[in-house]
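The following record pairs a protein chain with its ligand, zinc ion.
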Amino acid sequence: MINSVNLTSELVKCPSVTPDDAGTLKLIKELFKDTDFKITEVSKNGIKNLFLRWGSKNLPTFGFCGHIDVVNPGEISKWKMNPFSGKIINNEIFGRGSVDMKSAVAAFCLAALNVSKETSPIFSIVLLITSDEEGKAKDGTNAILEWMNKNNERMDYCIVGEPTCPKKLGDMIKIGRKGSLTGHFTIIGKQGHSAYPQLAINPINSSVDLIYLLTNKPLDNGSKFFEPSTLVTTSIFTENRANNVIPQQVKVTVNIRFNDNHTGEKISVWLKKCAKKIEYKTKTIIKTDIKISGEPFYSKPGYLANLVKKSVQKYTGISSEFSTSGGTSDARFVITKCPVVEFGLVGQKMHAIDESVQVSQIVDLENIYTDILKNYFNDVNRKTKG
Ligand SMILES: [Zn+2]
């Protein structure tokens, strides 16, 4: 009999490093074969994703979203065992993706399947499963949402099953995330002899000026739902190997995690302005290249956040904190469609060597997801009757 624990183990056995689904989607299709779920494969640019629906699309619809791709295990010799063994030892499943986030996918698949068997379809469930989250995330959840829009597919609420809890299952529900932006600056000066600095323009000095200008004041003091934005210098690079040469060029990279006081566009304009100032002051040329990987978003804590919180409390006894901490996630795409929150496992071991998950956590997560669906169903039922 398939359950969320042995399904997680089977999923971990598939080496689904982005963007290869490596058989994971086939396992999920098999699970839903001969059920009332309609399975659609949504592929884009060679990336395979799945969309599953139970019940008519005119009905109130609850969605779950997750990814089955994983990050590279890195040096395999550093692992205690094969990162794709999926072995269960002392009630723990070992392997890449066990935490992030094959367990949650298994848990919501089983929750959806079991609830569908016990319930008459006066509401509907959809599942969005992608194999492109850990990479560029261009043709994954985005592609499914595009397909949903084209096919008049909808959902009223969605949970993304990313690991969200810092210490204990239940301690955190994410209601949003900061935006993320990376700025690359190439500062070009004039190469010369270090004994004759007056004849050269040193781009290293300009890079120091630029970094000071960017970091000497906080970006903001936070907002109602967010911590203050941060700007971190992640790289200063020059090709120079000689100790008596002033190099021609220096590259500086900064990464900014920004809250809803800003937009990616506004920060880009500010970065370019700062670069212009330093260019003028230090007589260098500065080329600026900016990549926005996500805008900040949040779902105001309302019906959905409280629905999740109630079920989490029932199974863990913990009153979850609503938070917008952490990096970007696919919830940034889902928010364009409906209110979304993220709730999943304890994230401590995600992307780490010897990633593993306790079996009891998967069972709890499945119970929580099941309870959320049942409570949503009851609420819909009450509204229809009322
Ligand atoms: Zn993840």
